[in-house]
């Protein structure tokens, strides 16, 4: 059972690393970005709402995201296998809601993996990725939103003694190894 949050700026490699750990250890991977992009693609009501925020690099309102996570975390695979949260929480309000949800479920977090990457490298990576919301202007706004709303979670989790900081530049395999070490998953 693994119960972990992946934290870090856009383009830090949270998704890449989360998928690797999820597959290797058979843990459900919950990416709010993936959930929202799927909704946009399907053209659901959630998708239409989310798109207006994502296109500008803004955060989707807390209540909406918290509702999605509440529903997902209540499914039976989570109780059996745990979870890797990728892209949630992104605000203090979301972090507090997560604490509340996990205490209701009686499933405390094991660790928060903070993937740290320099700003220059982030912009380079996102421009190369070329997703719909990866234009220079939108990237700049996502970084600003990250600094203002998400970066405070680093201290929030450090104070709870849950934070493991990992430098996210280098070989993908090496970074995966460091994450496994931080989670106490040895070879
Ligand atoms: P990145 O790869 O840049 O970290 P994500 O795929 O995680 O991006 O998210 C893309 C967009 O989806 C965000 O810019 C935001 O608009 C929206 N989003 C994803 N997760 C959340 C969340 N927890 N709260 C609010 N908005 C979110």
Description:
- The protein is of the alpha/beta class and 187 residues long.
- The chain has one domain: Rossmann fold.
- Helix content is 59%, strand content 13%.
- It has ten helices and five strands.
- It has helices at 14-25, 32-42, 45-54, 62-73, 76-81, 92-105, 119-129, 136-150, 152-159, 172-182; strands spanning 2-7, 29-31, 82-86, 111-116, 163-167.
- It has a five-stranded parallel sheet, with helices on both faces.
- The longest helix has 15 residues, at 136-150.
- It is globular, with a radius of gyration of 16 Å.
- The structure holds adenosine-5'-diphosphate.
- Adenosine-5'-diphosphate binds at residues 10, 32-33, 36, 53-54, 57-60, 65, 87-88, 90, 94, 142.
List the helices and strands and how they pair.
Elements: E1 2-7, H1 14-25, E2 29-31, H2 32-42, H3 45-54, H4 62-73, H5 76-81, E3 82-86, H6 92-105, E4 111-116, H7 119-129, H8 136-150, H9 152-159, E5 163-167, H10 172-182
Parallel strand pairs: 1-3, 1-4, 2-3, 4-5
Helix pairs in contact: 2-3, 4-6, 7-8
The structure holds adenosine-5'-diphosphate.
Pfam families: ADK (PF00406)
Region (NMP): 31-60
Keywords: ATP-binding, Cytoplasm, Kinase, Nucleotide biosynthesis, Nucleotide-binding, Transferase
């Amino acid at each position: 059972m693994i119960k972990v949050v992946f934290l870090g700026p856009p383009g830090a490699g949270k998704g890449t690393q989360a998928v690797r750990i999820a597959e290797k250890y058979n843990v459900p991977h919950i990416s709010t970005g993936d959930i929202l992009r799927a909704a946009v693609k399907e053209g659901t009501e959630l998708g239409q709402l989310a798109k207006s925020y994502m296109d500008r690099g803004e955060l989707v309102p807390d209540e909406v995201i918290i509702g999605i996570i509440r529903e997902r975390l209540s499914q039976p695979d989570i109780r059996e296998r745990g979870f890797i949260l990728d892209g949630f929480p992104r605000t203090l309000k979301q972090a507090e809601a997560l604490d509340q949800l996990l205490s209701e479920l009686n499933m405390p977090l094991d660790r928060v993996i903070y993937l740290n990457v320099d700003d220059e490298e982030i912009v380079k990576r996102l421009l190369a990725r070329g997703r719909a919301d990866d234009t220079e202007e939108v990237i700049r706004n996502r970084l600003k939103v990250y600094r203002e709303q998400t970066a405070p979670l680093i201290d929030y989790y450090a104070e709870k003694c849950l934070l493991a900081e990992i430098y996210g530049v280098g070989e993908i395999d090496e970074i995966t190894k460091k994450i496994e070490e931080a989670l106490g998953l040895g070879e």
